[in-house]
Amino acid sequence: MSITHTYDAVILGGGLAGLTLALHLKRDHPQLDILVVERRRHPVPEATHKVGESTVEIAAHYFADTLGLREHLDSAPIRKFGFRFFFSDGRDDLDNLTELGVREVLPTPAWQIDRGIFENFLGEEVLRRGIEFRDGARVASLTTGEHGAEHGVRIRDDNGEREVKARWLLDASGRAGLLRRRFDLTGDNGHSANAVWFRLDDRIRIDSWCGDSAWRSECTPPERWRSTNHLMGPGYWTWMIPLASGAHSVGIVADAGMHPLDGMRDFERAVDWLRTRQPALAREVGMRRDRLLDFAFL
């Protein structure tokens, strides 16, 4: 098999991390010849099985100003009303609970992001900026050079296999951890966590959960639903994130020792788990069974 090309940088993984890394490298070093290899074929579904739909302010600044993506962010995603936390284990009376969150929209913008929509846009943007993006392609094998030698990547797609060389090899493959696994860098930090998440094709408006008009008016505008809302309890949190597509993302992150995955590993079990821990959210989700778009766990 002949080597067809030598790149300055080959990025393994073309999700959010890999595509933004490619844009950043090209911005700072326009002369670089960059290849991004992504196993998923584009366009990806708008409702992807991925977490990370809520930006914090520093990440929002990076996307908007460092990478120059503000026009897309202002036109597509929902402007976020900050993080919000309710310490609500076993309770549904939000107006009587400890709530941490901003009362007015922060001057520094952040957004709620539909990961599929955003990653499809990024895939198009890297091409516009002169970066080669190969979707629907898998890394068949890697060879790593030493002492300044080039690295080799064998790529497999519908057209067969192709081998390329790279001066720099960058791993943005997420949980696949291609270089992490190759160099046996995986370590156990003693913290084991589960996550389940799903999307409902409907808006969950947390403001309507309480009839106290004074509580509603504490926020300006009175739109807590635009926050990344967390309902908290011992060893876990749940999230609610509104998406521009009209869907709402719901998730549970939990200490595996306190809340085993088996108790929440499908939609109905997750709803049952919520009935005890977060009864208000369980009611909202249970009423929308017919609006379920997807479900995933980790």
Number of helices: 8
Helix- and strand-based class?
Answer: alpha/beta
Would you count the extended β strands for me? Answer: 15
Q: What is the topology, as strand order, of the major beta sheet? A: 5-4-12-13-14-11-15
What percentage of amino acids are in beta strands? 25-35%
What is the average per-residue confidence, as pLDDT, rounded to a whole number? 94
Radius of gyration, in angstroms, nearest whole number: 22 Å
Identify low-pLDDT runs.
Answer: none
Following the backbone from N to C, one meets helices and strands in this order, namely EHEHHEEEEHEEEEHEHEEEHHE
Shape assignment: globular
Taking the sheet with the most strands, its summary is: 7 strands, mixed
Ends distance: 38 Å
Please give the share of residues in helix. Answer: 10-25%
